[in-house]
Amino acid sequence: MKKNRLVTILFLAPCVIAFVMVIIIPFFFGLYYSMTDWNGVNTTVHFVGFKNFAKLFSTPDFIYSMGITVLYTVINVIAVNIVSFLLSLLVTSKVRFRNFYRAGFFVPYLIGGIVLGYIWQFIFNQILVSFGNAWEIPFLQASLLSKPSTVIWMMSLVNTWQYSGYIMLIYVASIQSIPSSLMEAAQVDGANYFTRIIKILIPMMANAFTISLFLTLTTSFKQFDMNFTLTNGGPATRFMDKPVKASQLLAMNIFNTASSNKMAEAQAKAVVLFVVLVVFSLIQVSVNKKKEVEM
């Protein structure tokens, strides 16, 4: 028994040590530096307490980035999961070439966020604009990424296109785990397709919805690479009578702050992002878990 325990510890030790070195220790160092005046250059730092945190909530660009990140996350959570669920229904039906569709829908997820951003930037800035000018469609004659009112929706569109195939696989696995006899029995009893989905399929997929909503929530809050290459935070707009970047999500706002040698302020923003993400995630998981029990 002791030998088995020793073997288990030896196998776990590399992972635990790596986790502590890469995650735990940097996390606490980050908390410390968020309460200093560290700029990334000076070797001496001074403790300033919660001064950096107090400054954030009077800074227009941070408040705007926080708000636009929440909006972007809400749009993505709704859009990605609806599209993914509909795709999962399609590829688990008796439609021809369903395996081909399943692979095709998943392929966009394999494209890296950096490459994805440049591809869609070309589509929005060149192809759609050329199409709008050729067909005299006023809405498309200027890039949809250049308008503060549409840029966040276009980012959500790109994210939905990329991420839906991945979430679809979670729903597909859940659907395939449901005994087909249940659906067949409901069909024999006279329940139509829509009723079977609402009354049987969705309740029995509650666990899959919990996982999928959590993944889309956390991924949207931490979005950076596609934001960086697709819009680079632009275009400019005004908020609280100050110029801000209309599509600068919180992760990119942190990156730009750190790039300006405001390391302590950037770390404070990162701590706020961490707290907000934890709160939203815990609320979402707890609500979905209760629904699982009810269902």
Largest sheet: 2 strands, antiparallel
Average pLDDT confidence is: 91
CATH topology: MetI-like fold
In CATH, the architecture is: Orthogonal Bundle
Distance between the ends: 41 Å
Strand content of the residues, in percent? under 5%
Name of the top-level CATH class: Mainly Alpha
Counting H and I runs of at least 4 residues, what is the number of helices?
A: 12
Q: Could you name the CATH homologous superfamily?
A: MetI-like
Q: What is the compact description of this entry?
A:
The protein has 295 residues and is an all-alpha fold.
Describe the structure.
With 295 residues, this protein is an all-alpha fold. The protein has 12 helices and 2 strands; from the N terminus they run H-H-H-H-H-H-H-H-H-H-E-E-H-H. Helix 4 (98-106) packs across helix 6. It is globular. The two termini are 41 Å apart.
Keywords for this entry:
295 residues; mainly alpha; MetI-like fold; two-stranded antiparallel ribbon; 2 strands
Q: What topology does this entry show?
A:
Layout lengths: L1 H32 L17 H6 L3 H32 L6 H9 L6 H22 L16 H26 L3 H9 L4 H12 L1 H16 L3 H6 L5 E4 L2 E4 L4 H10 L3 H32 L1
Antiparallel strand pairs: 1-2
